[in-house]
Amino acid sequence: MMPVNCFVTKKNDILTLASLYNNTHKKKRKGENKLVYTFYELCWFFLIYSFAGWCAGVVANAVRNRKFVNTGFMNMPFCLSYGVCAVLCCIFLPELRHRIFFLFIGGALLAAFVSIMTGLILEHIFHRKWWDYSKNRFQYEGYFGIWHLLIFGAAIVVMMKFANPLILQILKQIPHFIGRIILIIAYILMGIDFLGSVIAILQLKIKLRRIMQLNENMQKVSENVGNAITVRIQKRMMRAYPNIKTENIKESVRKNTKKEKTVFAEGCCFFKIFWLFLIGAFIGDLVETLFCRYSMGRWMSRSSVVYGPFSIVWGLGCAMFTALLYKYKEKSDRYIFMLGTVLGGAYEYACSIFTELVFGTVFWDYSKLPFNLGGRINLLFCFFWGIAAVVWLKIIYPKLSNLIEKIPIKTGNILTWILILFMIFNAGMSTLALNRYNQRQQGSLQKTPQMTAAVEDSRTDLEKFLDKHFPDKRMEQIYPNAKTVVDGKPVSQKDMKEKRKSS
């Protein structure tokens, strides 16, 4: 398991992302054998792989079109999506570094996720894809093809096995102070460049709205209005991605002009996905509770949050299956089962890493089951994900979708936003309660009777509130199987109590 200890017990510590990640990984490591990276190292990885990705994109475009084109979002030689993908791999995949096949699969899936999210964001802005591989065989919605996944998977294996250790050796030769100055300067320049590109895109979007309302003579005037810098950026983007040229976007806008809504949450929209998430979270909690009662002979909470019976893992899984597989719901059961098995396994693995990093807690451990991967997933439960995908898309989703669409539009809109705010509050309160619970568990192993009074007096108002409303007994009822990570190893609640007694 990854050496994780995310929680700081000192008074008034500010848990910024940087300090949180660095405090998590202060254990001694040896050269190439280390499986985690500091925030400083991740910043370098993001910078280096953003540049490497930009170079790869430019070279590929030059070979394909026989001319140089800056294919990046920014003017500087950085492609941020490659940097984001590299950092995600460094966070989620270090345990797989010596298991090449699973590292390849995990890298390909993460690359696919980043490609889809990047494409969706840009498509939402321009109502048109920036790149489109829909004419290729074995592709997904035009965002990527099978060859892209193979290349990305192989590249990430090389990155994790060879490139990262080499970069770390080079970084050791750079004084830490100088390295930080270089990073600060680089990120300031990138921030300015990124802001300029965003402004250019926003201006282009505003201009496109105006163009749709103007006649031909006024269009010429409108196209000449704008800041010279942003116009230059817009022209560069259009050269790199012909799909976002004005005439192409105008045609897409005409085709996709929104009609007046007559049905609430029609199709696969955000509101529909949220309701499916909420219902899936409730059903998942209910199913797991009944399964534990049947298999273990006792009732236990399977909720992910402190208020209400909601299993976030199940809810997000239902939302993910719907969003990614919605257009494939008419495919064969075997096809959906295979996709569900792979996506479900990858999703559960990522959830396990995320909860351990953020909460310092392991909510499930399959290390005693056969065919497991780091105790985070196992083959049997991956098959369950595949079965769940088939049942969800073929049986449950159509019925739930029809029920959701019967909600009156005005009532549905108001109720949806109320529930969104409630779930955000619920998740935030659950995070604070779990963090405080882990602080108490970790601190109880280090306290002496003489320290207890001083610690009690030094508590903040928030800590007092959490200690009062979410004491250990209540937290152990809500999360009976949660394991606190101590010195890189998950420790059960029973073992924690025994350690406290012995100490």
Rough outline: globular
Helix and strand pattern: HHHHEEHHHHHHHHEEEHHHHHEEH
Q: How large a portion of the residues is in β-strands, by DSSP E?
A: under 5%
Mean pLDDT: 78
The number of helical elements comes to 18
What proportion of the residues is helical, as a percent range? 55-70%
Number of beta strands: 7
Strand ordering within the main sheet: 3-6-7
SSE class: mainly alpha
CA-to-CA gap between the ends?
24 Å
Could you characterize what this model shows?
Helix content is 67%, strand content 3%. The chain contains 18 helices and seven strands. A three-stranded antiparallel sheet has the order 3-6-7. The chain has a two-stranded antiparallel ribbon with strand order 1-2. Strands 4-5 form a two-stranded antiparallel sheet. Helix 6 packs across helix 8, helix 11 packs across helix 12 (333-359) and helix 12 crosses helix 13 (379-405). Residues 1-35 and 215-226 have low confidence and may be disordered.
Give the topology, please.
Blueprint: H1 17-24, H2 39-65, H3 80-92, H4 100-126, E1 139-140, E2 144-145, H5 146-172, H6 176-211, H7 216-224, H8 228-240, H9 246-255, H10 270-296, H11 312-325, H12 333-359, E3 361-362, E4 372-373, E5 377-378, H13 379-405, H14 409-444, H15 449-457, H16 461-469, H17 472-478, E6 483-486, E7 489-491, H18 493-502
Antiparallel strand pairs: 1-2, 3-6, 4-5, 6-7
